[in-house]
Write a structure and sequence with these properties.
The protein has about 90 residues and is an alpha/beta fold. It has a single domain, classed as Ribosomal Protein L25, Chain P, CATH 2.40.240. Helices cover about 20% and strands about 50% of the residues. Strand 2 and strand 3 form a beta hairpin. The two termini are about 15 Å apart.
């Protein structure tokens, strides 16, 4: 399953993304570049629920498929939604 990700505008507050049903995150590329991204929370939570035994995630960023590993997920204390995710390209 490929999760569609968009480059995130850093001038927009994080709460706006959360209210729109998005999860924000950072993709660390092999070349050292860090890209701020946003993705649909429901698709990400579905993927994490179905694939809880793996830490690999394939994202589509500007038409390019990037194979990543999940480094860290920050979740909501009450609802357990993913607020922030850190990904590293493998």
């Amino acid at each position: 399953m490929v999760i569609e990700a968009n480059v995130r505008d850093l001038n927009t507050k994080n709460r706006k993304f959360r209210n729109d049903g998005k999860t924000i995150g950072i993709v660390k590329r092999i070349n050292g570049e860090s890209i701020p991204v946003s993705m649909t929370r429901s698709k990400l939570m579905t993927y994490l629920g179905r694939n809880s035994n793996t830490n690999e995630l394939i994202i589509s960023l500007n038409g390019e498929h990037i194979r990543t590993s999940i480094e860290h997920i920050e979740r909501d204390v009450v609802l357990h939604f993913a607020h922030h995710i850190q990904l590293k390209e493998i």
